[in-house]
Design brief:
Elements: H1 2-22, H2 37-49, E1 56-59, E2 63-71, H3 78-86, H4 94-104, E3 118-124
Antiparallel strand pairs: 1-2, 2-3
């Protein structure tokens, strides 16, 4: 009887391992929306056009930069938003981006931005 129970347990463990490796146990997120590059460029240009005015701020280290007010959507980070606004990689370091973001948004840290709120994001001159 012990051998039969051991065999059944062994087969069950093999099945669980097989299922985990082939199917997986994590569900695919249904909220992930994939955009084509053209659609994303349209959304970014619409976002830029919707800004009423773009003001210029000065930074002692990196010259002039402007900012755009953007409403944060789910899954976005300060880095991802600024990279979208720039249309590519950042011309400054991430630590400089954090400093500029905190200067534009006093009492706010990049790690604690909230979905649905509007923040000022720096746009660097190329």
């Amino acid at each position: 009887m012990k051998k039969l129970l051991g065999l059944l347990l062994f087969l069950f463990v093999l099945y669980v391992i097989y299922y985990d490796l082939s199917e997986g146990v994590l569900s695919t997120p249904a909220s992930v929306v994939l955009f084509k590059k053209d659609e994303m460029d349209e959304k970014i240009s619409d976002e830029k056009e919707s800004v009423n005015e773009e003001e210029t701020a000065t930074d002692a280290n990196n010259g002039d930069y402007s900012y755009i007010e953007v409403e944060v959507k789910a899954g976005e980070t300060v880095l991802s938003i600024v990279e979208k606004l720039q249309g590519g990689p950042l011309p400054v370091s991430i630590s400089q981006l954090i400093t500029d973001f905190q200067q534009l948004n006093p009492n706010t840290t990049p790690e604690l931005i909230q979905v649905g709120k509007t923040y000022k994001f720096p746009v660097y001159n190329k």
